[in-house]
Design brief:
Layout: H1 8-27, H2 41-49, H3 53-68, E1 70-75, E2 82-90, E3 99-108, H4 116-137, H5 150-155, E4 163-169, H6 181-185, E5 189-193, H7 202-205, E6 211-215, H8 216-226, E7 244-247, H9 253-262, E8 272-274, H10 277-299, H11 319-330, E9 331-337, H12 362-374, E10 393-396
Parallel strand pairs: 4-5, 4-9, 5-6, 6-7, 7-8, 9-10
Antiparallel strand pairs: 1-2, 2-3
């Protein structure tokens, strides 16, 4: 008797139903303490998440600047100020003569900014420190341990004393009309992102600020517009007493920090806190882990295929994610506002931007925030910090 074969159409239908059921299983919430990636797959996700191609690129940029960058200034027309250029040599092809490419251009005052040679020496010293810190963390197994020093860094307090309650205020348009302002201001510490405006929005986003967390693009934009006119640059919209906590996304921005600091005065200081290299690495791992997990859940493909839909050179965590991670150690209770989206809502409450940036996986980051609230013991990498316990986290949508 001949063996009957399942018709190809029925076989494909059965396979599709099986795939749909598997994807639905992956998207279901897990019991407390359970892991969806059994048999070592969670360990695989952690291992893949620790590969930071974007971080490698930043290191390469810093090394190129250290080896080849030049700084030169020229008087502007009318001698009102100086034009400062940061340049590196490049070749359009293998046989062409080297030419100078401008990496950064700033208007700076005649007085206060060091000479070209002194400024270049200081810039190279900053680059060396930046490279050493990031190369060193690759040899450490306790990357997550970087959060231990955050209370003293952010709050200026001795020891490991935390703030009692903290509000991390995201910039999502869902805050418009929320009337969360008074609730946000009632926290002991409010952490805001990328110098987002509060004037005109206080009813929804509050008015108090204890720390402004920014990426270095914000500093660069600020230096371009204010280095020539404002001592210490005009980078502190919440007041000079409110420090900027900044992570460096482009090494060239270290020059902006040097210039703003050089022109600072006692009346116009430039308080800046640069994040620990290990904290940057921790946030990169968390963001990539959750993005890969979301990819597996949505496609059913192995996490190694994640790179087919994400360019690792430019994939990056958001400023909000790093601010939240910082708050986990600096605060006894953490409230999250403005993290999420809704149909028709603007991307940022204070701008007209509607489209999300492609270099972030916001949906994956939202799952991280939900895990912090609902099952913190399942959050990867934080469980590697000795004696660390995730504080209570409340996500307000």
């Amino acid at each position: 008797m001949k063996r009957r074969r399942l018709p190809s159409v029925l076989f494909l239908l059965a396979l599709a139903l099986l795939s749909l059921a598997f994807r639905r299983y992956l998207s279901l919430p897990l019991p407390i303490g359970a892991s969806r990636f059994a048999g070592g797959s969670d360990a695989l996700l952690r291992r893949l998440a620790a590969i930071d191609v974007g971080g490698d690129q930043i290191l390469a940029e810093a090394a190129a600047l250290l080896a080849n960058a030049s700084v030169s200034t020229f008087p502007s027309l009318g001698n009102h100020h100086r034009l400062l250029y940061l340049r590196v040599p490049y070749r359009s092809n293998a046989t062409s003569a080297p030419r100078q490419r401008t990496v950064s251009r700033l208007r700076v005052p005649f007085h206060g900014v060091p000479s070209d040679a002194t400024l270049l020496a200081a810039f190279r010293a900053s680059l060396r420190g930046f490279l050493l810190a990031r190369q060193h963390h690759r040899h450490l197994h306790d990357v997550a341990g970087a959060i231990a020093n955050l209370p003293a860094l952010l709050l200026g307090r001795g020891g490991r004393r935390r703030a009692a309650t903290c509000a991390v205020v995201g910039n999502s348009g869902i805050l418009l009309g929320s009337r969360r302002g008074a609730q946000i201001d009632a926290h002991d510490l409010a952490i805001r992102l990328n110098n987002a405006r509060v004037a005109g929005f206080a009813r929804d986003v509050g008015a108090r600020t204890g720390v402004s967390f920014v990426n270095s693009n914000i500093l660069h934009h600020c230096a371009i517009h204010s280095a020539v006119t404002t001592p210490g640059c005009g980078c502190h919209p919440y007041g000079r007493a409110v420090p900027l906590a900044m992570y460096v996304c482009q090494p060239a921005h270290l020059l902006d920090a040097l210039i703003c600091n050089a022109t600072a005065t006692p009346e116009s200081p430039f308080p800046l806190l640069v994040t620990d290299a290990r904290l940057d690495a921790l946030c990169a791992r968390i963001a990539k882990y959750y993005s890969m997990r979301r990819f597996v859940a949505a496609t059913g493909q192995p996490p190694s295929n994640w790179t087919r839909s994400h360019d690792e050179r430019y994939f990056h965590y958001s400023s909000g994610l790093q601010a939240v991670v910082m708050a986990l150690e600096a605060c006894e209770e953490v409230s999250l506002f403005g993290f999420g989206k809704a149909p028709g809502a603007k991307h940022h409450y204070h701008t007209n931007q509607k489209k999300e940036l492609d270099l972030h996986d916001y949906e994956a980051e939202y799952q991280f925030y939900r895990d912090l609230q609902e099952r913190p013991e399942a959050v990867p990498f934080l469980d590697e910090v000795p004696a660390f316990k995730v504080p209570p986290v409340k996500l307000y949508l």
